Task: inverse folding
């Protein structure tokens, strides 16, 4: 609580002492949420919520979940969380895993394993924003995919080893007959899904604005001349952090490595968003942070190997 109070006091002083700069940071966070996060994540949250609530995934997952079960030992609905988490980006993996657990479609044991690796930056973000837009080198996109998503994929295979040995039912609720609600109940359930999607979308926007302000305040307090300070400042929020590193005078190899590490971890903003939408308790949050750190270290190692072996010949 003291740490939270200190952080909020720090932001309040930033708002009072540097109102124009704070206004610019808040506006940047809102624009990022409005132009990038809301139109992408809100439809996914709504559609996925309806599919889960109405038990409409069984037929599809019966076919596509087999390779996921072979690799991760997960259930059918666990395969859905993995698929959404790797394709849609933060924090959809955590959101879907929480929804599946609340609907009793996956066990608590499976959910705790899935949280560790299904929450990642989306492929479109890695290809378009990181490689093409910020570094101006679209050819690096394949390396970002391999290092960032590949490390999470490998960690998932390793961490899910005990799930492959355990007998997991496809879901606790998967054997129940499909829902056949009346018209009024149907619209009430859809309204619940809409409300849940709106609530989580607004929640994400609030976190993005808050961490945009925090990133601006940290940058002001610690000028980004030193690579260590630059890296620590960039870890607050991934989008602005990647922009700071990409615009820095560091060598390309150093920028590539730092951006890979930040992308693998996701930044403090993504961490807070994921913990919020997944309603993580202290133990689950600690396990989640440990998993992200391990994935980040694995991604950094893979990125370093790619630099040493190829010297970025894809440029």
Result:
């Amino acid at each position: 609580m003291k740490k939270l109070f200190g952080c909020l006091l720090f932001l309040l002083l930033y708002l009072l002492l540097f109102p124009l700069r704070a206004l610019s940071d808040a506006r940047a966070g809102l624009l990022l949420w409005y132009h990038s996060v809301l139109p992408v994540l809100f439809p996914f949250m709504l559609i996925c919520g309806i599919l889960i609530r109405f038990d409409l995934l069984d037929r599809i997952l019966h076919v596509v979940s087999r390779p996921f079960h072979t690799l991760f030992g997960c259930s059918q609905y666990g395969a859905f969380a993995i698929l959404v988490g790797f394709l849609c980006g933060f924090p959809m993996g955590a959101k879907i895993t929480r929804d599946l657990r609340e609907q009793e479609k996956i066990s608590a044991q499976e959910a705790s394993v899935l949280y560790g690796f299904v929450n990642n930056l989306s492929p479109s973000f890695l290809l378009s924003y990181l490689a093409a837009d910020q570094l101006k080198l679209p050819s690096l996109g394949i390396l970002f995919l391999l290092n960032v998503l590949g490390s999470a994929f490998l960690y998932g295979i390793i961490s899910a080893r005990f799930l492959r040995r355990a007998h997991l039912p496809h879901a606790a609720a998967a054997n129940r007959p499909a829902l056949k609600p009346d018209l009024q109940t149907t619209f009430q359930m859809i309204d619940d899904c809409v409300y849940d999607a709106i609530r989580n979308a607004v929640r994400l926007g609030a976190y993005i604005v808050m961490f945009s302000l925090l990133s601006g305040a940290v940058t002001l307090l610690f000028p980004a001349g030193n690579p260590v300070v630059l890296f620590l400042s960039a870890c607050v929020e991934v989008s602005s952090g990647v922009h700071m590193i990409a615009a820095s005078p560091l060598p390309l190899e150093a920028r590539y490595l730092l951006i890979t590490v930040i992308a693998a971890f996701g930044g403090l903003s993504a961490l807070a968003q994921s913990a919020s939408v997944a309603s993580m308790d202290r133990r689950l949050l600690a396990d989640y942070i440990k998993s992200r750190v391990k994935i980040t270290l694995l991604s950094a190692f893979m990125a370093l190997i790619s630099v040493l072996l190829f010297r970025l010949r894809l440029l």
